[in-house]
Design a protein that fits this description.
By secondary structure, the protein is an all-alpha fold. The chain is built from 6 helices and no strands. Helix 1 runs parallel beside helix 3, helix 2 packs antiparallel against helix 3 and helix 5 runs antiparallel to helix 6. The chain is globular, with a radius of gyration of 17 Å. The termini are far apart.
Length: 142
Amino acid sequence: AVVSTQSTGNRACAMAHTALKMMASKGIPLSPAATHTFLVKALRALQVHGQHDNCLYTLLNVIIAIIQATYRTIPHVARDILLQVPSVVPEKVDKFFCTLEKPTSSDRNLRDALQSLVSPIISRPISEAGKQQYKIQDLRPL
């Protein structure tokens, strides 16, 4: 059941990403209310499904497409929502928007910048949930 939910979610995100790209290419603007709703829903999906790599990258692409479609006309909407992510400071949001505005930024750079920004809400895999992180400072040869 999980696999079918993930694949359905991936298809839905891929379709949303394609639709957003098409709207942007035709100059069809998103309203502030639609932008707010889409971003909040995508961030909530990231919170629930972000533990799976394929879902993570698809959702990050959707969020970036929403922000790219609206940051020039209604930048305050995306900024206000991103500032509500726990442990996010305005400087990190500003840095993300600077990365977004660079013409040389690749999709990967944008994804990495957004992922570092929203990392506090991305869920950990269930297999990692109870594990402690160990650091071995001094490992002598056997």
